[in-house]
Amino acid sequence: SNGVHVWIDDLPAMYRAIHRAMKPGSTYILYEIHPFQRPFDGKNLEQLTVVKPYDATGPFESDTEVTFGWRIQDILNAMLDAGLTLRHMEEMRAEVNYDDPDWISCEQKLRERGRVYDRAQIDRMYDWRMNPMAALPHWLSMAAVK
After folding, report:
1. Residue ranges for the chain with pLDDT beneath 50
2. Closest CA to 9 of 73, 78, 64, 55
3. Is pTM beyond 0.85 here?
4. Can you say how many angstroms the Cα of residue 85 is from the centroid of all Cα atoms in its chain?
């Protein structure tokens, strides 16, 4: 589900559908970009720029898309209200990835096709003293059962 929640306008309906499709005793696993990442503009990693309050969930409309910035409580409450039981939750920092750094957006990768970052540049991206975003959890995962 990495990134899917931004496209969902009705989380309760999504989780009711997930619950309905699950067998009793089965497990639902969520892996998602952490909602703490969404209030910030990641264009300048060395200085955080807040582009929206954390509790502004959308809809956010552009010329080409409509997205949402759900909070942890929105996701978890939709899951629980649908009848799922949370068994475990993890908030993870991004781990250094020299092949596909987490701190380079899809848009930036498209613009910079073929650009190669050296290891020192990538190490700086994952150092919270150089990139304040690296001090926040980057990923969220939950396991819930029916």
Report:
1. none
2. 78
3. yes
4. 21
